[in-house]
Amino acid sequence: MHDNGTVTTARVDKFQYHDHYDVDGLLSEDHLLARAAVRDWVKKEVTPIIEDYSERAECPTHLFKGLGEIGAYGPSLPTEYGGGGMDEIAYGIIMQELERGDSGIRSMASVQGSLVMYPIYRFGSEEQKRKYLPKLGTGEYIGCFGLTEPDHGSNPSGMLTHYKEDGDHIILNGSKMWITNSPVADLAVVWAKDPEGKIRGVIVEKDTPGFSAPAIHGKLSLRASITGELVFEDCRVPKANILPEVAGLKGPLSCLSKARYGIAWGAIGAALDCYDSALRYSKERIQFDKPIAGFQLTQKKLAEMITEITKAQLLAWRLGALANEGKASPAQISMAKRNNVHMALVCAREARQIHGGMGITNEYPIMRHMMNLETVLTYEGTHDIHLLITGMEVTGINAFK
Ligand code: TGC
Ligand code: FAD
């Protein structure tokens, strides 16, 4: 604010986008440019259609290529392998802006970049990288990531999906459950046990004999994201499709670290959208002859929401700075994913109350975010699993088993 009481343009922007601790001051020009580009794209391509797609439980598959054009797939992977060549904070900010639109749209990008491109980039052969990564980076190919099974969710090490060797092929059997994008995917990165019982990553292309990916219906959450199974019945895959550089659970778990990091940022976007809607509504809605924003109980809700959002922003930023130095540990990522997703869900519930009855309608984004966040709280490691990861970090004692 100037001395004469006028507000500077930058400050208007900060109020509009609820940057109460000048977190923007921690960001570079490149970060701000990336954010502006994605924010504009979301406003133009996602916001006008998302309630409708969500209500119809339909995935806006036409957005896959647009996400590639704005660099949402693997923003921090090298450009020569289809990534954006940016840093981890830019990656986080892009996820935040996508999830301001919808968690399902952020999921499209998380899976493609962190769970499909990243394992191929990190653990694949040069030939696999050249074959798949450029087309995944543009959205010409859509990928999915198969770890969870019907009977092994939080405990993926117990997985039953396995393969045996047959000359220069493997024969894969088993099934995966709850797989984002699987019914529309061109390829799946599947985690399966080799003949020695070691977990290996395998790239399975969609037309491989013995492979199918039926959709799962009836989801009341993440409705604009498509989810399915992966079924392998004597599925014959070339041995050349095995990711050569990793064996063991640390393979899929390191991909999850990358994706959980993005979710820690993404959830802030959903929270901001709920807060923004609640703040506007509370200033416009008149009860007892004054805006409901003038009542102390409404202000308590809004003040607590922006406090928690600000804490989450600072946690995400510090995690991003550590990630840029290659120092973000899995336990630090767990803490941020768990805290920020829960924070966003609490914001959605508070925002819903501020909107009164209107809060349950699709005229406002609140219920959609709230329903989406129930999935986000569970996938990529449940709220309680991340608590136990933190518990193990601070006590040194494993309470999972
Ligand atoms: P544990 O013995 O602890 O670990 C096995 C090996 O993995 C290493 N490790 C990690 N490495 C990299 N990053 C991490 N985050 C890691 N966590 C562990 C660990 O050091 C060890 O390495 P080594 O060399 O000694 O073998 O494994 P555990 O069997 O005891 O399990 C631990 C537990 C429960 C924490 C883990 O399995 C877990 O995280 N469970 C949750 C499962 C989960 O998150 N599933 C997500 C499925 S994918 C998904 O949800 C996508 S949603 C997509 C969308 O956005 O739409
Ligand atoms: P369970 O593991 O059965 O857990 C049930 C409850 O038990 C939870 O509250 C959990 O916290 C608790 N629990 C489990 N173990 C313990 C313990 N040791 N101590 C205390 N409590 C415990 N997976 C993929 O591989 N790829 C995907 O693309 C993907 N996308 C998804 C999309 C959606 C919409 C959803 C809903 C899920 C997706 N998942 C995906 C699966 C997701 O990662 C799993 O749902 C999640 O890991 C939890 O597994 P589960 O559902 O089997 O629950």
What does this structure look like?
- This protein is α+β, with helices and mostly antiparallel strands and 401 residues long.
- Helices cover 51% and strands 13% of the residues.
- The chain has 11 helices and 9 strands.
- It has helices at 9-16, 29-56, 63-69, 88-101, 103-123, 126-138, 250-284, 296-324, 330-354, 366-378, 383-395, and strands spanning 143-146, 162-166, 169-180, 187-193, 199-205, 211-212, 227-238, 286-287, 290-291.
- The protein has a 4-stranded antiparallel β-sheet, with helices on one face. A 3-stranded mixed β-sheet has the order 1-4-5, covered by helices on one side.
- β2 and β3 form a beta hairpin.
- α8 runs antiparallel to α9.
- It is globular.
- 49% of the residues are buried.
- The structure holds 3-thiaglutaryl-CoA and flavin-adenine dinucleotide.
- Flavin-adenine dinucleotide binds at residues 111, 144-148, 153-154, 178-180, 222, 227, 375, 378-380, 382, 384-385, 388, 400.
